[in-house]
Structure formats: structure tokens, C-alpha cells
């Protein structure tokens, strides 16, 4: 069996019965009796037909980029595997991870998704990771896992804000999440992205002014701001869809400087020294 790459040799004509799509990857498999200068075997189609399906499958596999997305910043985590088809992400799988199990279940869930689609980490075109705000432990587990997977094969990383993904999902200008302790994570994306931690009174004032242009995903927040647009909590698949423009532009993050979008100090920092728990405003790039 002879394998010719990049189509046909100069001067050779394409067999008339070669199925469309087989030449898409520039590989043709010929039987040994087709030597240089010899005429085309009459039963070439019989030689080619067994590999036609395999050629098509390989062609599709090579032309479609695989993407992985991780979101462990909320009370329920998700892992999503997708491929780009015509510039659009096609979801292949999404796995939910119960809270407080991320460190034990995240990597096995990724491994299972890749294995189910006959893929490996090295096949990934990029990794999208939700960097918060939310659970401090969840954010750190997600970022550490994304960086650990990306480093050996230099896979590009792209981090997104959970607030920005929520607003994008709801089609609103702003989004809010419950930060507990009568405080709220707030993100305004009407112009330059602006994220900050707000006390209750400030949140209620802004929520009243925005009305339906504020996105929430938690019943507790919707009870405080009934005019807000409520949607299901953002997932890893939602993060992929939000990240699509940056994926196309290849606007990736530097893994050496990439950190969590915490918006406030951790409990250990809060209780170890005096000071307000409120964090400084943060300007987000995503």
C-alpha cells in the first residue's frame, strides 16, 4: 500500500470514482498494483471504499478544534468539552460537579470527557477557565487545574469573569451574585467592565435603577430585585460561548500572571487582621 500526501503526483489524473471528501485531507491510499505510469485499476473503488469512512472521520477530526471549559467558582461546578465547527462552538459534553468536591472530581471528569470523544489533552486548541468571583477554593482549584493541563503542551488559556458570563447569558448590561455577609458581587459591562463588592444598600440602589438590565441567577437576589432578569446559573458551556470573540482573536491570558477574580479578601485574611471585608473595584477584561 502506498500513501501519497498532498493529492496527486504531477501528471496523474484523479480517479473518477474517488468519493468527494477523501481528497480534503490530501491523502490517497492506493493498492500496490497502481505504480508510476500504470493505468488505473478497474476495481479501484473496491480498494478505496473500505477506507472512505475513515478518511472522512479523520478529515473532520483534523478540521475541528477541541475546546475545554472549566467553571468551579460557584456552588455547582461544570466541565464542558466542545469543538469549533464553522467558527461556532458545538457542545460535546458537559458534566456537573457538586460543590466541595472539585479537587477530587474535576480532573477525573475532564479525563472521562476526553476519553469518551477519543481525544487527549494535547488535542485541545484552548482552555477556558472561569476565574470568579465566587468560592475562593473553587476558583483556585479551577485555575490550578487549567494551568496544570496547559503547561506541558503550551495550550493557550483564556480566563473569563463569572459576572460577565452571567450578563452575556441574560443579554443585560450588568450582573450580580450573592457574596454572603449581606454583600454582593457586582459587574457593570455597559462600557469599560467594572466589577466590585457592594454592601446591601448600594446593591439595592443600583438594582432599582437598572431594573431588567440587571442579571441574577439566585432566588435570594431575585427576591431583593424582582425587576431583574433571572436566568439559570452560568455554566462552563456559557463561558465558552462568551469567550468566542476572544478565542477567534486569540486574545489569550498569560498563565504566569493569571489569577482569580476574587473581589474581596479570603476569610483567613479577613479574620487574621482588622479591616473591612470589602474589596476594591476591579476592572475586568472579560
What's the β-strand tally?
Answer: 12
Distance N terminus to C terminus? 52 Å
Report the sheet-strand fraction.
15-25%
Mean pLDDT: 80
In the predicted model, the low-confidence regions spanning at least 5 consecutive residues are 1-63
Q: Spell the H/E element sequence.
A: EEHEEEHEHEHEEEHEHEHH
Report the structural category. Answer: alpha/beta
Q: Tell the overall outline.
A: globular
Radius of gyration: 25 Å
Main sheet: strand order: 5-4-3-6-7
Helix content: 25-40%
Summarize the SSE layout with pairings.
Elements: E1 2-5, E2 27-30, H1 44-63, E3 65-71, E4 76-85, E5 88-98, H2 102-116, E6 124-130, H3 136-153, E7 157-160, H4 162-170, E8 174-178, E9 183-188, E10 194-199, H5 200-210, E11 214-216, H6 219-224, E12 229-230, H7 236-249, H8 267-272
Parallel strand pairs: 3-6, 6-7, 8-11, 11-12
Antiparallel strand pairs: 1-2, 3-4, 4-5, 8-9, 9-10
Helix pairs in contact: 2-3
